[in-house]
Write a structure and sequence with these properties.
With about 425 residues, this protein is an alpha+beta fold. It is built from 13 helices and 21 strands. A hairpin with a 2-residue loop joins strand 4 and strand 5.
């Protein structure tokens, strides 16, 4: 049984929705965010370091204080307004002609503690701490987390009926990525109650994107519960903002790796070492895209290579062993490049597939990185199998696109 509730969303008036809504805090670096942020953009709240010249440290007290100041200012100026009643919200995203329909809900942190909200990645404590400070300071979940659930025909029917019969509150195409975003408000009490009841029969929610925000929200909920001698479990601080999508509507794209050095090896030594566990084929200067499971692209010394893991180097019957990120981590990053911990090693960085494989080549050619690896995307089935068996994927394994726009709706407590 999963516990969700409707909530009084804090959101922009329709005329400003496109200007306020922004890409998530962890998709843009500070320079990119500063360049992208218009006057009303939520980036001023979720990446407040951009309001300083030069750009401030995102973890500094002045940045955290600026976030609080800006959030208050956006509400004072009417760029963010709270709905008077508790609602659910349908949030639709369109990318490359494909639309996915999610429900913006308030999820209960206890479900995360109890394992009903299932994770597939470990989190970094410092990133949890950073998000915790923002949630605690704002008394709000400014950015939603992205969850999936086993598709339910009745919920699909409810959503389809509203979408087909009512005009959306928001309907805009975001600048930059060109993805479409629509939102409908569900105000009918009977429909709200029915959605809540249906979710009580759904065994689990799955964190698709937003592990750090989920962990941070749960920690803030626990913290506030401990400080309240009259805690009941129903206070608004027990809940946090999530957009939940049926699993059969989601698509995962690749999440790739770049490494700063060759761990003392020459390029030819790297290729020779790889031949033990991979069929290695040099493909030239044209970008190589992996075309199946257990096939990788590698960019090294101005050349692209196809790497195919040899039989016996992976276990397709094991939820973790089947993953290409596991194969790469064990046989290449660890054994050859000496990277033991993906969560803490500063020599490795991760590049979402939305940036394209040209980004890998660019970062190596610039001299910033020495080697890059392109991976075949993980499937939703692989993600759910891992979460259901209590296993953990290596960090930065899944990249969901399109990303949720931050600021479409906010949950305050």
């Amino acid at each position: 049984m999963v516990k969700i509730k409707a909530f009084k969303g804090i959101r922009p008036p329709a005329k400003w929705a496109k200007e306020v809504a922004s890409r998530p805090y962890d998709v843009l670096d500070s320079q990119e965010a500063k360049a992208e942020a218009g006057e009303k953009s939520l980036l001023h709240i979720i990446k407040p370091e951009i309001d300083f010249d030069p750009i401030a440290d995102e973890h500094s007290q002045e940045a955290y204080d600026k976030a609080v100041e800006n959030y208050k200012l956006w509400k004072e100026r009417g760029w963010l307004v709270q709905d008077p009643t508790e609602n659910y919200y349908i949030y639709a995203q369109t990318m490359d002609g494909r639309t996915q329909y999610g429900l913006a809900v308030a999820a209960h942190y206890q479900d995360y503690i109890d394992g009903k909200i299932k994770k597939h990645e470990l989190t970094r404590t410092e990133k949890e701490d950073d998000r915790m400070i923002h949630v605690r300071n704002q008394q709000a979940n400014i950015e939603p987390v992205f969850f999936s659930y086993p598709a339910d025909a009745e919920i699909d029917a409810i959503v389809a009926k509203i979408v087909s019969s009512e005009n959306p509150e928001y309907d805009f195409v975001a600048d930059g990525d060109g993805f479409g975003h629509k939102m409908w408000k569900i105000t009918d009490r009977a429909t709200i109650d029915r959605i809540t009841k249906i979710f009580e029969t759904i065994p689990a929610l799955y964190v698709a994107d937003g592990h750090h925000r989920t962990a941070a929200a749960a920690r803030v909920g626990q913290e506030m519960a401990a400080k309240n001698p009259n805690h009941t479990g129903e206070e608004e601080y027990n809940y946090f903002l999530a957009v939940v999508f049926p699993d059969n509507q989601l698509k995962i794209i690749d999440y790739n790796r770049v490494v700063k050095d060759l761990n003392g090896h020459t390029p030819s030594q790297i290729v020779a070492a790889l031949e033990k566990n991979f069929d290695v084929r040099e493909v030239g200067t044209e970008i190589y895209t992996p075309d199946r499971l257990h096939n990788f692209g590698m960019y090294l010394d101005g050349r692209w290579y196809s790497l195919t893991a040899k039989p016996g180097t992976y276990d397709d019957n094991d939820p973790i062993g089947v993953l290409d990120v596991t194969i790469l981590s064990n046989l290449v990053l660890d054994n050859i490049l000496g990277i033991k911990d993906l969560r803490t090693d500063k020599r490795i960085d991760f590049v979402g597939g939305i940036r394209g494989l040209g980004e890998l080549q660019k970062r190596v050619d610039s001299g910033e990185m020495k080697i890059a690896f392109a991976l075949y995307p993980v499937s939703m089935k692989q993600l759910i199998d891992i979460a259901d068996t209590g296993n953990i994927m290596p960090p930065k394994t899944t990249w969901f696109e399109p990303k949720l726009r931050s600021g479409v709706v906010i949950h305050g407590f």
